[in-house]
Each structure stands twice: as structure tokens, then as C-alpha cells.
Design a protein that fits this description.
By secondary structure, the chain is an alpha/beta fold. The longest helix has 16 residues. Helices cover 36% and strands 17% of the residues. The protein contains 6 helices and 8 strands.
């Protein structure tokens, strides 16, 4: 068992203790993805994520993510407001959140850059089909193959985890767990936090 896989298994144990997210990415991923085929919805998965401002001021991690084409992005070099979302195909609440984030990205284009980063160990092999099946046209397919972001955020965040950063790369708030990004309240939370950081 590789060190990365062992670490991710511990992350999944922590996540499982906090809330039931289905199977973890520890070698049982195929079974987990079979469960996800049932197409979880906001009716079957509660969007009960909580906003946490206690990390405000933290700097965006200087982690390099990659897309299926092999292009790289250093998060600390983006230079614009970022809504960073850590997710995985095996995480049912994440699956429910993705189309809501896609709508948010379209609505707030030019105001905040929505970056979705997959923590799937199988990377593009599972992420590309996931995007193709759901037509998530406004979300990028960034991958974190070594789960470096998961380790950076305390070694075991519950997925999904979404963090808002200002243009200087300073954290404004984070949402732990699934959140209803399709609401006006969600858009207001993003825009008001960014406006306050500019003043």
C-alpha cells in the first residue's frame, strides 16, 4: 500500500466519523462509484454545510494542480478571487453540489474563479467521464493526484470542502460539507465577502 493511499484511507476514516459519505477512495472506490450511480440529489442528500470564518486570513496553498491535458496551475499564482472546491466522484454530497457550483461559476464569471479540484486517486480516468455525463461546462477539471490539498487542509477534511479567497490569496471563509450554491444567499455570501475584502 502506497504512502499516499494510506494517508487517504486515514482521511476517509476521519470523514466517515464526521458524516456518512459512502465508501472511501482506499481501493474500494469501484464499489463506491457503483453506489453513486443512483444519482444522489438534493432531495436525498442534505445540503447542510456550515460556514467557518475562523481561518480568515490564511494564505491559499502553493499547491500545483493538473488537468487531464497535463496543464498545471499553481494555486498561489492565480491572482484573482477564487472559490476553491475539493471534491471526489465517490462523495455523494460532492456529486449533488457540482451542478450548483457550475451554475454559480456561470453567474459569477469575471467576479470569482470557481476551481473544482478532484481528490480522486484515479484522477482523469474517473473525472473526465463524470464531467461528460453531467455537462458541467463552467467548471474546470483540476486534479490533485497526490492529495496534497487534502493534507494541507489539516490532514483530513470532510469532503466537500469549499474555500473563498480574495485576489491576494487570503482566505475569507470556508464551507465544510455540501452547501446549496444555487441560492441567492450563497451568491450574496461570496460577493459581500469579496466586496468587504476590497474596502
Amino acid at each position: 500500500v502506497s504512502l499516499a493511499k494510506s494517508r487517504l484511507f486515514l482521511i476517509c476514516l476521519a470523514a466517515g466519523a464526521a458524516m456518512s459519505l459512502g465508501a472511501c477512495d482506499n481501493g474500494a472506490e469501484d464499489a463506491a462509484q457503483e453506489n453513486v450511480v443512483a444519482a444522489p440529489t438534493s432531495e436525498t442528500i442534505a445540503l447542510t454545510g456550515t460556514m467557518d470564518r475562523s481561518f480568515a486570513g490564511e494564505t491559499i496553498p502553493a499547491v500545483t494542480v493538473v488537468n487531464p491535458a497535463g496543464e498545471e496551475l499553481v494555486l498561489s499564482e492565480v491572482g484573482e478571487p477564487v472559490l476553491l472546491n475539493l471534491w471526489a466522484t465517490w462523495c455523494a454530497p460532492c456529486v449533488v453540489e457540482m451542478p450548483l457550483l457550475d451554475e454559480l461559476a456561470a453567474d459569477l464569471e469575471g467576479q470569482v474563479r470557481v476551481l473544482t479540484v478532484s481528490e480522486d486517486m484515479r484522477g482523469a480516468e474517473v473525472v473526465e467521464p463524470f464531467f461528460a455525463e453531467r455537462d458541467l461546462a463552467h467548471l474546470p477539471q483540476w486534479l490533485d493526484p497526490d492529495n496534497e490539498l487534502a493534507f494541507t487542509f489539516g490532514g483530513g477534511p470532510v469532503l466537500p470542502l469549499t474555500v473563498l479567497y480574495d485576489a491576494e490569496g487570503k482566505e475569507l471563509w470556508r464551507v465544510i460539507g455540501a452547501y446549496d450554491w444555487g441560492t441567492e444567499e450563497a451568491r450574496s455570501e461570496v460577493l459581500e465577502a469579496l466586496a468587504a475584502s476590497d474596502s
